[in-house]
Amino acid sequence: MAPIITLTTDFGETDGYVAAIKGVILGICPTARLVDVTHSVAPGDIRSGAYILRTITPYFPPGTVHMAVVDPGVGSARKAIAIRTEAQILVGPDNGLFSFVLENSPPLNVHSIENQRYIRSNISATFHGRDIFAPAAAHLASGIQIDAMGPPCPFSHPDWSSVTMEQGCIRGEIIHTDRFGNIITNIEGRHLKVLFQDDAIAIEVGGQTVPGLSATYSEAPPGTLLALIGSSGHLEIAINGGHAASFLGVHHGHMISVLRAKI
Amino acid sequence: MAPIITLTTDFGETDGYVAAIKGVILGICPTARLVDVTHSVAPGDIRSGAYILRTITPYFPPGTVHMAVVDPGVGSARKAIAIRTEAQILVGPDNGLFSFVLENSPPLNVHSIENQRYIRSNISATFHGRDIFAPAAAHLASGIQIDAMGPPCPFSHPDWSSVTMEQGCIRGEIIHTDRFGNIITNIEGRHLKVLFQDDAIAIEVGGQTVPGLSATYSEAPPGTLLALIGSSGHLEIAINGGHAASFLGVHHGHMISVLRAKI
Amino acid sequence: MAPIITLTTDFGETDGYVAAIKGVILGICPTARLVDVTHSVAPGDIRSGAYILRTITPYFPPGTVHMAVVDPGVGSARKAIAIRTEAQILVGPDNGLFSFVLENSPPLNVHSIENQRYIRSNISATFHGRDIFAPAAAHLASGIQIDAMGPPCPFSHPDWSSVTMEQGCIRGEIIHTDRFGNIITNIEGRHLKVLFQDDAIAIEVGGQTVPGLSATYSEAPPGTLLALIGSSGHLEIAINGGHAASFLGVHHGHMISVLRAKI
Lengths: 263, 263, 263
Fold this sequence. Notes:
Three copies of one chain form a homotrimer. By secondary structure, chain A is α+β, with helices and mostly antiparallel strands. Helix content of chain A is about 20%, strand content about 30%. Chain A has helices at about 15-30, 45-55, 100-105, 130-140, 190-195, 245-250; strands at about 5-10, 35-40, 65-70, 80-85, 90-95, 110, 165, 170-175, 185-190, 200-205, 210, 225-230, 235-240, 255-260. Chains in contact: A-B, A-C, B-C.
């Protein structure tokens, strides 16, 4: 079976960066199936990249290699790592980019990528995607074992604020805005279940209060704010036919609260 | 021969939506060749998506599966359908998205996609692309017959205004603006042939009159408006080296008229 | 081994142009591996496209076919050409698009693409990408020899200003701006070596002076201008965490100078 390698970066689509990575991969693993996840992660926005990775990894076949590079610290001391979970392999910088994936699929092995056999001989200080991550991912997809990459190592936990649940209130943050202007938060459906069971809720964000959860984007009247548990299981704020992020003027990192609805 | 599946959506390139679809497809049909048509159809603009599909289907080999999702009614009552034409298979929502393709390639079979064997077991209310259309397209590409998807069904004809030809005047609409700012209309070269044969014509759009047809974009002086029959056979308005849509301030749905030139 | 065909164009990602090209290629060469380099070259900006091609060709395996279409003169008299270098094949318009690639990999054969067997029978005046370059690239990837495409021919050298080195000063131009706002110039690391060896230098651009070279983007304090030799070997101006091109208000074609630093 041809191995699958997915690519998630903030390199954009206007340059040759991603194609150089693909050339390196195909030179090492000619049968690899390359799947672009996105190259439009907001530059350096590790948490948004981590969220996107979480939304796609459950849908790929076992054995898929997910290479991701959102790496504002390229050239600094952060390690390059390869992680094996039960079903998949993750390759990228050790900066938290895989932390949401690993919440659902715990790491079985983590190795530092250091073996000169599996990276390029000239390492550009600014393009580890091409010179370290691409060849490592290609060798892993070709069947090289993860422990050949380098010594075992710990991996970094990012210090992102987590969801808090207390006194009848869930507080979280906006972590991603999608193409449609839908606001994705770090609050998940399971958080709501724990605190509110089936009670009516209200969501406060950007100075507005959104009453209750909808099932679909088209359930609310056109132009009105709605909340729903999106296809990734996260709480989203949307506007039927509109752009919620622009309307509310909110950004990644903005607070959002969920409360029991007043009756 | 590895089956080809093309993907046309309004999901954008900044999220994981398209990659989740590809993961589902490759899990079911590992040999599928995936070709992105575009994921940048204007959100919910079914007619623009329909036009793009019409421009690409003639160029793909027989047996290609074209999956398309521009689906403002996701989660509503519209059906999910699979259509077989003489040479290709179409998979998507029943909302008119395939209507331009079917004008040239009449449907031989249309089936509602309902068979639980060929869709995912948990259907998100907001992401039928991943949960219904992707698995159905993958099974069809793998050789499952279209009548296994579900019962035969009719398909919806959209109520888009069509081209009118009367009293020496052809009236149509703008249906797409391309990357270069060229305005694409629903008027085709064949309409002009019928009404004007080889007579000189003039095109009225956005308060401007464009005299006659050019053969190429560079035939008119730089910066001036020109009209031509584009590579899809549709009447286009362009500016040599400029952005006609911005210059004219016109949008999808704006009227355009073609008249016999005054001498 | 499945042949690789890369695609570099200014066709954008919002239309069906690129997919039509891929359909034509896969109809002729079903096993081709298609790699998108970018379709977002600034419309008609041949030099920016030429730079991008230079950054990716060294990373693809021998035998790769690179098809590129940035072609403001489509439909005019410029020839369609196929070029063989020691390791790769280039297909596109004869307008200088391959000139940077050929500086490093001299052409062994150049042929005009004219043979009716290897192009489509109906040639649109506005879409040679689909009707000439795509079928030619697919046939070449399938193993057809380059001399079957048409007669040998010379190729055009663009009249772009080149780097000048005199009186202790290197003068060049901005040729590309990348996704991060980094400004790429036509001055390369080797130019600096020749004139300054290891002496300290200063770079003047957009009314600002940047002192010396950094090794990485994160070496300078956040928000300050820095210069470095980027992953392509070219001199770049960047801002750690910022967008240098917007900050400086410079565009392709703007001058840049490198001088010995005053002590």
